[in-house]
Amino acid sequence: MPIERAWAQRARAGSQHDFSRLVAAHQGPLRAFLRRLCVNAAEADDLAQETFVFAWEQIARFDPARDFRPWLFAIAWRKYRQSKRSWLRRLRREKAAAPIEDSFTPDHGLRLDLGAALKDLSPEPRAAVLLCLGCDFSHAEAAQALEIPLGTIKSHIARARLALQTALGEAHA
């Protein structure tokens, strides 16, 4: 979007007002993406906040020749992975074997079944599906955001579609 590029360029020059426009434009989709990745909404909201703070701190490094959205979602993806690594380290340190608390409550609705099926995917394929099918990212934008090759994104999407069709087919057969 040309207007978004202008906001990003002015934000790079230090305009907090233009950065807040970028936040307003991307806050909803970014939070939705993170809420589908995370165990609970509070964790997702914390990661979204960290993403925007980090983006503001690093805005001078943003390449204005590129699109802002994949750059922002790449930060969110890295924050998510970092939080999972930290969680695993804490878990190992504490030698706890407690199961992960799941805020999902099974129901008969397709939407809930889809949510459960998505949670069965590993994080990288789930993120690829959420970006491409849930956030209208192109495969190239998703590859850029997740920092993985384009072919890997396409493979993740194809395999995830089959897994979701199987899971949903069984749930609604």
Helix and strand layout, with pairings?
Elements: H1 2-12, H2 16-37, H3 41-57, H4 68-94, H5 110-120, H6 123-134, H7 139-146, H8 150-171
Helix pairs in contact: 1-2, 2-3, 2-4, 3-4, 4-7, 5-8, 6-7, 6-8, 7-8
Characterization of the model:
The longest helix has 27 residues, at 68-94. The N and C termini lie far apart (43 Å). By secondary structure, this protein is mainly α. It folds into 2 domains: 1-103, RNA polymerase sigma factor, region 2, helix turn helix motif (Rna Polymerase Sigma Factor, Chain: A, Orthogonal Bundle), CATH 1.10.1740.10; 107-173, Arc Repressor Mutant, subunit A (Orthogonal Bundle). The chain contains 8 helices and no strands. The protein has helices at residues 2-12, 16-37, 41-57, 68-94, 110-120, 123-134, 139-146, 150-171. It is globular, with a radius of gyration of 17 Å. The model is unreliable at 95-108 (pLDDT under 50).
